[in-house]
Specification:
- There is one protein chain.
- The protein has a two-stranded antiparallel ribbon.
- The chain is globular and about 60 Å long.
- With 340 residues, it is mainly α.
- The chain folds into two domains: 204 residues, no CATH class; 109 residues, no CATH class.
- It is built from 15 helices and two strands.
């Protein structure tokens, strides 16, 4: 099915914090969460150590890698693109599968994850942003998980409409049983499969396929919040913090953040026609080929070019004098865009 060019979903946005008020605030650390994350990382480090010893079977390492890809797609392709931004639509069986993948990644239920991320987009890099990068790299990476939310986040999250999420029975079911599902799919199942099917030690399977894989997935996601708001070029909008960070894109398998904040409704999360690729886009396109995904939303090339020339930092090829698109003929790029 041809991609939809829904104007309302794809309207370029510029983030503003005008509605957010400044107030005296003392960060309150939640020490139980600090202890939990220390424990989590110690188990992950032991799992990482086992990956380089004869204790871990090759099949277990492959299994852990596949779970990383599966869970990563559940976050980037599912909670992010499908549910939070409505960048494409999927039929019921595929939504169930993606919800399972998102639960394997265990980063909060779909409803909560999408709600917080919508707040992040509307109030990016302000006190209302749950992972505000202006509070430092450590805070935007992991620190925000270990302290109480800023009062402005608590106030402004109520302004975000998330009623559409509860119209999906998959989201409702996952939210209702999330704790049990997360323990089973993130911790128990990843360890049980290597132990049962190819005789891996249950201890090794747990520390490698459950704990190390889980923490690695967490950091791959968190790098978008930290590195993706700190380092890199801003070819689409130099006025915002989100940047096209090679580090963040590498671990997220192709999510380019400056483009995404400029055009949040584009399912590609990167401009097609460049040398960039995204694992998650390949998967979505594959399911579209199978007929399980439809209404993929993209931004036309002429809209991207206009944004680059108007607000970009000058690093995009469109901004270069010898770029053929600057002649005014953007037919070739538009054709590529239309055929996605």
């Amino acid at each position: 099915m041809e991609n939809s060019k829904s104007k309302s979903a794809l309207q370029p946005t510029s983030v503003s914090g005008d509605e957010v008020t400044s107030m005296p605030y003392t960060m309150e650390i939640v020490w139980s969460k600090v202890v939990f994350y220390i424990y989590l990382h110690l188990t992950a480090l032991y799992g990482f150590y086992l990956c380089f010893t004869s204790a871990a079977l090759t099949a277990t390492l492959i299994w852990a890698s596949l779970l990383y890809l599966f869970g990563g797609f559940g976050i980037a392709g599912g909670a992010h693109k499908l549910w939070c931004h409505r960048a494409f639509k999927a039929n019921l069986p595929l939504r169930v599968l993606i919800a399972v993948a998102q639960t394997v990644a265990h980063q909060g239920d779909i409803y909560t994850w999408s709600w917080e991320h919508r707040v992040h987009h509307k109030f990016s890099d302000t006190d209302a942003d749950p992972y505000n990068s202006r509070r430092g790299f450590f805070f935007s990476h992991i620190g925000w998980m270990m302290c109480q939310k800023h009062p402005e986040f608590t106030r402004m999250e109520k302004t975000i409409d998330v009623g559409d999420l509860l119209q999906d029975p998959v989201v409702v079911f996952q939210r209702k049983y999330y704790t049990s599902l997360a323990w089973m799919l993130c911790y128990a199942m990843p360890a049980a499969v290597p132990w049962y099917f190819w005789g891996e030690s249950l201890t090794t399977a747990f520390f490698v396929a459950s704990m190390f894989r889980y923490v690695f997935t967490l950091h791959a996601t968190w790098l978008t919040n930290s590195a993706g708001h700190s380092w890199g070029k801003r070819p689409y909008d130099k006025q915002i913090n989100p940047s096209d960070s090679l580090l963040a894109a590498s671990f997220s398998l192709g999510e380019w953040h400056n483009y995404h904040h400029a055009f949040p409704g584009d399912y590609r999360v990167a401009e097609l026609g460049s040398s960039r690729t995204s694992f998650h886009v390949v998967v979505i396109d594959f399911f579209a080929w199978l007929g399980l995904v439809y209404d993929r939303k993209t931004v036309r090339g002429k809209v991207v070019r206009g944004r680059v020339l108007r607000t970009g930092d000058g690093t995009h090829s469109f901004a270069l004098k010898d770029c053929p698109f600057n002649s005014g003929d953007i037919k070739d790029h538009s054709v590529v865009d239309d055929e996605i």
